[in-house]
Design brief:
It contains 15 helices and 3 strands. By secondary structure, it is mainly alpha-helical. The protein folds into 2 domains: 204 residues, no CATH class; 122 residues, no CATH class. A 3-stranded antiparallel β-sheet has the order 1-2-3, with helices on one face. Helix 6 runs parallel beside helix 8. The two termini are 27 Å apart.
């Protein structure tokens, strides 16, 4: 047990805990200004953090090859959950994506992000020799499209784009020709076009506001972004301090604990705090890159790449929409945004990365022993 604990990747662990710490500090600040019955967002996030850390330990010790063996089961279970939430799920902010359990809500789409990574990694690594390049491309797209389509139906355009980005990136790194990459881009445009007609009117306005200045309604579709940019700009270099952000404390900034958590961080911790967060993410991504390069097998390599993709798309989209260069899509910022499903999913992903990293170390040690 102690030997396994010592094999936990310290860089991954430290980056995760630093980001979580920043998130909890800002959520504590936000919760001080909220008057609500029951647990505050801070204490709920503390509970989610414990659950997430437990999941990280579980996946750190579980052999990641088990995920390969169970990938088909994981795929169909995910589809079942997404169908269930469409029929029986609770609608929050126009999206039918939550299953209510007491005071807590489970969002199956966060589980779907990891599930798709695992399934695609298994499918691509196993079918690479059985199916030709075109067959593998078409089959993986159709199988992914089932999950993406169910997510669009909620409608959750942001998460659908994350899932599409995961499929796109994992397919490209699996080794295909340039012509096939063009086919992938065309297929992505088709999915985006179909998804457009599934969106609510307010979601379309958020996207249009990026490309059409006359579509910006400062009291409607553009309100969130405007308030977010005000919060980011008002933070200055060092911020206003924890608990002293006027936009977040006086409730001018909507969804300040979820979608616009980065704006809350920028307002209270300033440019230096924002750059610190971005630097930690950069270190995290670099560590994922190192683990991917030294993964013991193709399945492990693809899993790491898939997790890196789903983290990167969410970080880029969330920070982008906080500073007005990306549409508002409701994508959480990993480790920072309030939400149990997201936090548990990202901690579980870190656990899987830990496991793959430890297997690499075991192989190196075995090779050294044989050489000796």
């Amino acid at each position: 047990m102690l030997r396994k604990l010592l094999k936990i990747d310290l860089t991954l662990l430290l980056c995760s805990l630093l980001l979580l710490g920043v998130g909890l500090a800002v959520l504590y600040s936000i919760s001080m200004a909220q008057e609500s019955e029951g647990l505050s967002v801070f204490w709920r996030q503390v509970i989610f953090s414990v659950l997430g850390f437990t999941m990280m330990i579980f996946f750190t010790f579980m052999d990641y090859q088990v995920l390969k063996l169970k990938s088909t089961l994981i795929y169909f279970f995910t589809i079942l959950c997404l169908v269930f939430v469409l029929i029986f799920g609770q609608t929050i902010r126009g999206t039918a994506g939550w299953i209510g359990i007491g005071m807590f809500h489970i969002q199956p789409v966060e589980i779907a992000k990891i599930a798709l990574v695992i399934f695609l990694a298994s499918f691509i690594s196993q079918k690479k020799t059985e199916l030709g390049e075109t067959g593998r491309l078409v089959a993986s797209f159709i199988l992914s499209l089932v999950i993406i389509g169910l997510v669009i139906k909620q409608p959750d355009f942001g998460s659908a784009m994350v899932l599409l980005g995961v499929w796109l990136g994992m397919t490209i790194v699996s080794g295909i020709s340039f012509k096939k990459i063009l086919v992938i881009i065309f297929a992505g445009l088709i999915v985006a076009s179909v998804g457009w007609f599934q969106l609510q009117e307010y979601q379309k306005n958020r996207i249009l506001s990026l490309v059409k200045s006359d579509a910006v309604d400062p009291r409607g579709s553009g309100y969130n972004v405007i308030q977010s940019m005000v919060a980011v700009g008002s933070g200055g270099l060092i911020g206003k301090g924890i608990g002293h952000g006027s936009q977040s404390q006086l409730n001018f900034l909507p969804e300040k604990h979820t979608d616009f958590i980065f704006a809350s961080i920028a307002e209270e911790l300033g440019l230096f705090g924002s750059l610190f967060v971005i630097a930690i993410y950069s270190i995290l991504f670099y560590r994922m890159y190192v683990i991917a390069k030294s993964a013991p097998d193709n399945f492990g390599y693809l899993v790491v790449v898939g997790i890196m993709l789903f983290f990167f798309v969410q970080v880029f989209e969330n920070i982008g929409m906080n500073i007005g260069i990306m549409p508002v899509t409701g994508i959480p910022l990993p480790f920072l945004s309030y939400g149990g499903s997201s936090l548990i999913a990202v901690f579980a992903s870190i656990g899987i990365l830990n496991n793959i990293s430890s297997k690499k170390e075991a192989i190196i040690q075995s090779q050294d022993y044989i050489a000796f």
